[in-house]
Amino acid sequence: MRAAGGSAPLYILSFRHRDELTATAERAGWQPIAARRADNAESRFISSGSAVCVVDARGALAEGQDAVRSLADPVEANAAALLVLLSRTDEDALEDLFARGATHFLVSPFSEQQFLQAVQFAQRHAERVGGGRRGRRRDAVSADGASWRWQPGSSTVELSPALARRAGLGEEQGQRISLMELFRKLDADGRRAARGAVDRLLATGQSTAFAHSDLAAESAGGGTRLAHHMRVDDAGVVGRTEAILAPEGAAAASGRDPLTGLRSAREARSWIERQLASGAEGPQPSLILLLLSVSRFDAINAAFGRAIGDDVLQAAARRIERSVDPDGRTRLVARIAGAEFAVLLGAPAGLAEGRFLAGQLVEATARPFMSGDHVVTLGSRIGVVAAEPGDDAASLLRRGSAALAEAKAAEAAPIRVLDSDAANDSARGDRLEIDLRRALDQDEIEILFQPQIAIATGRVVGAEALARWRHPQFGELGAVTLFSVAERSDYLVQLSDHVQRKAIASAAAWPDALSALRLAVNITAADIVRPNFADQFVRLVTETGFPAERLTVEVTEGGLIEDLGAAGNLLAGLRQHGFRVAIDDFGTGYSSLAYLKALPLDYLKIDKKLVEDISGSPRDRIVVRSVIDMARSLGLGVVAEGVETEEQLALLAREGCNLYQGFLCSPPVDVESLAMLARP
To answer: Tell me: domain 9-130, CATH 3.40.50.2300, correct?
Structure first.
């Protein structure tokens, strides 16, 4: 079974079975973004662009319930679906999970086919919700096969017989009419929406839609609107038309949320599409979105009951409305999902105005609320974004959700303004997380070696193994970026194992010219806390045949902070097998002196920031001198990182440094180049 619409993203949070679900989704053509921890789940789901969020609570019900609660609002706000996987023994929790926001469920044991079918059902649900059909009446008027076809560049459109009849053009074999004639049959908002939808379709190739008033029905006293669902095929642009009756009731007819009386999420999306289609003249964006989440609302419901919670939410909606003063044309306030509200500012508003208004809203929602005899205090977090070229309602709301998630994650500032640079960085990070699994599976991570030189003799005596990823889109990515992506995507252990194994195996095959060189490999903070890591590492080295006495294990200083005792035990175990141990990036952490005192070490590597400063003021040189003197008094060798100038090298030599590495000698190189550098 292939993914609906091709290689669509699928967000998976599985506490016990992440890899199995990921492999199943990949085989079916999905593009999974998978995690086994709930950290930043809201932000990661939003940035994934997925229309389906899978929470696998099998064997982890409590964690699954918490995850569903945190993901429910962003799932609803982005017109997505939330599929929960449950153990058979946890079926009693279904009612609670639906109350928290789940839309679909699947109970184990289930087959791979059943899982994929459940995902497809959830995807179809999301498409229907996102297409604006959730609020449609069951007796909505059918368009009886009404459709149209247009070849880009042509000045005419071909209408089906059903659509030709509806447009009053006869009912034989359909009609071909000019674009101008067709556009004259649309209201002003409809013309703008149609132009915007066509532009999006031609720019992206992705299916889209627009809606407009049915002027013929309105003249007859009806309240029907026509929706056109557009796609591209081999014959050009095809539109399928459906007629949608206005929902019954005053609130529904005006697109109002029944609890708060604000505009509904559906109406907000329609308003966004109209604003984006109309565009904006000048440098200002056509639209600013503020996405506001009321904090601690779940706690209010739990403490005082849902009736009090609803009263407070209604009062919060009134405060937001008064602060914004919406007029329905240039400003709009809507309830998007649960305790989330959207504030929309049309042109000529800018990010500065959005930020200022966000500050006012934070103050307004922070003032205590009265409900009967209860005094209730709330707070809020707000994400602010500006519309960009190519945006539609879904993409703008998703970026707003990403900004809101960052605001929620921040300890202090309750407002996060996400500009285009930050959004691009976020999209780049998401792409890298997706591609990393493939890079590991297909052995795309390369190992280069940076020479380490004895200052006294100028000869190459060792090399540090460094990972490089030649990404097809972003070019060469270094170890810092690579390991940062791995940590975010829960592949840090796999990447660390891969790099260590590949580096040691490569060194074991070095030519005779390198047979005396030491090899330095890095271990991470995650390695330190892994059970039996020392035994696994020793077994790896033994299998490759590389001599243990020529291998140095480097641990970054930050990686030792959390558990100094565990780090000490691990390093001591490695030294017993003949390895040497170094602290990498020394001088960047907070417990440097404690490390030197407590850990079994052979080398200290001075961080490149201290090396850069050594040629600065006398005070900087004193700091470096003190570090080197302290290391020498403890019998430790000293390696300086990031040496780039002869002046830095001369000052390090004067202070008693033993070894250095950096671009002054060589950047990281392949084995052949390393052998040339090591020649006498």
So the answer is: yes
Nearest to 182 by CA among 210, 209, 163, 161: 163
How many CB atoms lie under 10 A from the CB of residue 259? Answer: 12
Task: Return the SS3 of 584.
Answer: strand
Q: Report CA Rg, the chain.
A: 31
Residues 6+ apart with CB under 8 A from 441: none
- The H or E element spanning position 574 is helix 564-576
Strand, helix or coil for residue 510: coil
Q: Which residues are 231's β-sheet partners?
A: 238
> Tokens 């005006």 — which residue?
254
Residue among 14, 15, 32 at smallest CA distance from 23: 32
CATH architecture assigned to 258-418: 2-Layer Sandwich (3.30)
* Cβ-contact 341, 335 below 8 angstroms: yes
DSSP 527-550: HHTSTTHHHHHHHHHHHHT--GGG
Largest CA distance in the chain: 99
In angstroms, the first-to-last Cα distance of the chain is 61
What are the extents of the domains in the chain?
9-130, 147-244, 258-418, 450-465+510-678
Q: What dihedral angle (degrees, nearest 10) is formed by the CA atoms of 41, 43, 47, 50?
A: 40
Amino acid at position 234, single letter: D
Which pairs from 127-131 meet CB under 8 Å and 24+ separation? 127/4, 127/51, 129/79, 129/80, 129/81, 130/51, 130/79, 130/80, 130/394, 131/209, 131/229
Q: Is the pTM of this model over 0.85?
A: no
**DSSP secondary structure string, 101-160?**
T--EEEESS--HHHHHHHHHHHHHHHHHHHTT-TT--TTPPP-TT-EEEE-TT-SEEEEP
Q: How far apart are CA 91 and CA 154, in angstroms?
A: 57
* 588 close to 615: Cβ distance less than 8 angstroms: no
> Hey, is 311 helix, strand or coil?
helix
Helix (H, G, I), strand (E, B) or coil at 613: helix
Quick one: fold of 450-465+510-678? TIM Barrel (3.20.20)
Q: From the first residue on, what is the mean pLDDT of each consecutive set of 10 residues in the chain (680 residues)?
A: 61 88 86 79 77 93 89 84 92 86 91 93 82 35 59 80 70 66 74 80 72 59 62 74 50 65 87 81 75 84 79 88 83 89 87 86 85 79 89 86 83 76 56 78 89 94 92 75 75 89 96 94 84 91 95 75 73 93 73 70 86 76 86 90 90 91 91 90
Q: What are phi and psi of 93, to 5 degrees?
A: -85, 0
